[in-house]
Amino acid sequence: MNRMLFWLTPLFLSAHLTNAQAPEPVFNYDEAKVGTYKLPNPLTSNTGKPVKTRADWENRRAELIQLFAENVYGQTPKQTIKLRFQTTAVDSSALNGLAIRKMVSIFFVDYPQVPSIDVLLYLPKSKKVAPVFLGLNFCGNHCVTTEADIPLSTRWMISGAVGEAAVNNRNGEPRATEKFRGMQARRWPIEMIIKRGYALATAYYGDIEPDHPQGWRSGIRSVLGDTTKADNWGAIGAWGWGMSRILDYLQTEPRIDSKRVITIGHSRIGKAAVWAGAQDDRFAAVISNESGEGGAALSRRWYGETVERINTSFPHWFCGRYKTYNKNVANLPVDQHELLALIAPRPLYVASANDDQWSDPKGEFLGAVNAEPVYRLYGKTGLGTATFPALNQSVGQTVRYHDRTGKHDVTDYDWEQYLRFADELVR
Ligand code: GCU
């Protein structure tokens, strides 16, 4: 629950306090009270036709992406943006000689006012060409490692998520301090990843859009999209788009196997990773770590976070139209199992943690279960089970799932499962 309180934004509080009549939002944690709900069928087209073949599914897939864009995440701008990749530093003997470390900035040539995405890339020296995990981070590249020569990000910095480490600059905007260095290194076991023969690419999500309601004004959404539209893209769409731009860069990196780029994301960044993977099939596999509401968890299941709550606390994450479902989730033309189905036939990992009931582990599991028919269409077994597994047990085939003990986090246990998943399925 702490996590829930933690993220009560001032915006949410003031809206809440000024309306004395508004009932207290109720969050359900009682399985007996979940009630019944009817999920939309991914294999029924918009006009009611059954989807029987892979070719039918390809059309249905396009329909579903459109439905998610119109109703949930907003439209991802289609135009090709001119990018310039600039390598700013190379260390050919990083991590005690295990890795080559590169820093590469992605600039938007026609939009010099939009900040670059600054990529931190570790390549295993043991391989000429390596598959790569690509994930955005929450508090700057300097957070994912204790290495002293990674420059501190000078961008807007989320302060709540990382305690008191951010200090305000002259304009009263939070910025990173040295206290941030390595703060989330535990979540990024770079040595373990490198020793297993994988590269790691990461960038700060705030490079793409600072995570607050006005953040779009200084990110990519200030120049792309249309703020007057109910289906204009939200921050999650922008973060997902940014992952695809990093993939554009990785495709030019000779030491990267660009056919084996695995996108990974935790929590809100997990929501973005799944949406990115759904739209961009250059991602070979997708990993959702506790992405919860608006990620892998079913929206119609009344448990933990709700659509109404996420739209209230984080009004900038989704498109405007998503808010019209706050009080009638049953009218959403899609549910999140269909988002997961958009990854098919590619490998997908959905992970939960049992002290993270806010993300609704069972709802995430059921999201994966209900993506099964689409994997079957490709002759693949997805999860292959509808029985919720015991704690710390990874189940499934092309789709995998585990419910880890512990809190909302990314742990070595999670990474061990992801590495095994990648070894077995992303070949
Ligand atoms: C909040 C939010 C979740 C989100 C999480 C996070 O708890 O309600 O939807 O996943 O923050 O990103 O850590």
From TrEMBL:
<feature type="domain" description="4-O-methyl-glucuronoyl methylesterase-like">
    <location>
        <begin position="231"/>
        <end position="379"/>
    </location>
</feature>
<keyword id="KW-0378">Hydrolase</keyword>
<feature type="signal peptide">
    <location>
        <begin position="1"/>
        <end position="22"/>
    </location>
</feature>
<dbReference type="InterPro" id="IPR054579">
    <property type="entry name" value="GCE-like_dom"/>
</dbReference>
<keyword id="KW-0732">Signal</keyword>
<dbReference type="Pfam" id="PF22244">
    <property type="entry name" value="GCE_fung"/>
</dbReference>
<dbReference type="GO" id="GO:0052689">
    <property type="term" value="F:carboxylic ester hydrolase activity"/>
</dbReference>
<keyword id="KW-0719">Serine esterase</keyword>
<protein>
    <recommendedName>
        <fullName>4-O-methyl-glucuronoyl methylesterase-like domain-containing protein</fullName>
    </recommendedName>
</protein>
<dbReference type="InterPro" id="IPR029058">
    <property type="entry name" value="AB_hydrolase_fold"/>
</dbReference>
